[in-house]
Amino acid sequence: MHSVDYITVDVFTEDRFAGNQLAVIPDARGLSDAQMQAIATEFGYSEVTFVLPPEDPANSARVRIFTPTMEIPFAGHPNVGTAFVLGQQAEIFGRAPGDHLRFEELAGLVEVALSRADGAVKEARIVVPRALSIGPSIDVETIAACAMVAPDAVSTANHAPVRVSVGLPFAVAELKDVAALSAARPNVTAFEAANRRYKPDEDSFSLFLYARSAEKPWQLRARMFAPLDNVIEDPATGSASAALGAYLVSLLPEETIDVDLTIEQGVEMGRRSIIEVSVSKQGGTVGKTSIAGACVTAMRGSIALSTPARR
């Protein structure tokens, strides 16, 4: 193999050059793990996906997700963007894609539903592969140091800072208002200290901050910092949005409730993203959690894999 084709898409947006960038390798057969990691590092996006034939023929594909530094078990915008790309193809490893896809991933099976307009894929909705997990709690001083904000900018009225996950773990914390959120900046030294104290098993310490108003509690503004993964800031983080949405619904007093929330992210980066989250709670337990968003194709090309011979 001397080259491999790729497609880049902007995810969680209807506007090209907004949202979160994703590179998709629609046919990664023949690539080694080292080549996949090198390609992800070369792009420098928060994630790159590599599509392979499924191990179970009942599923659509096996999808591997790499950050610039490592492979991860699950992420939101890579699944939405990969589904958008595959849904536009005539076939996926010999079969027509249809409007319902199933991706095999390290975190489990990811169910995807595509929405089309005039035959073209416009949006994808994915169901997260794991149930909500919560903990440990994280001290306010650690959050404040990582985000370079005053400790009193961290709000604990609704919940203390805590790690949550529906497939990929994040520390989540509420800030007192959008002004405090916009002022946040990642402090790599503080992240390294937090990683030593709170490192999750499946990734390094990442921080998802948000703010919301009492008038519109289900319309949130958010930012995500993951400098230890070479992602200083992420313009849209679907897995963190899903985990946060599920966690906030788990805190509600209602035993049974369905909640739709909207998370706006990437504003401070000039790459505004809109993430739609739906959470179902039955009998006091958070069940199905899904995220959805629009996508737009940005670039197509090929990656050279072999080095030209010296003359």
TrEMBL record:
- Please report the name of this protein according to its UniProt entry: PhzF family phenazine biosynthesis isomerase
Task: Identify the PANTHER family for this entry.
Answer: ANTISENSE-ENHANCING SEQUENCE 1, PHENAZINE BIOSYNTHESIS PROTEIN
Pfam families, per the entry: PhzC-PhzF (PF02567)
Supply one GO CC term from the record.
Answer: cytoplasm
Give the record's keywords alphabetically: Isomerase
The active site of this protein is located at E47
Q: Which family does it belong to?
A: Belongs to the PhzF family.
Keyword NAD in record: no
Protein species of origin: Ensifer canadensis
User: Which InterPro entries does this chain map to?
Assistant: Phenazine_PhzF-like
Q: Give the molecular function GO annotations.
A: isomerase activity
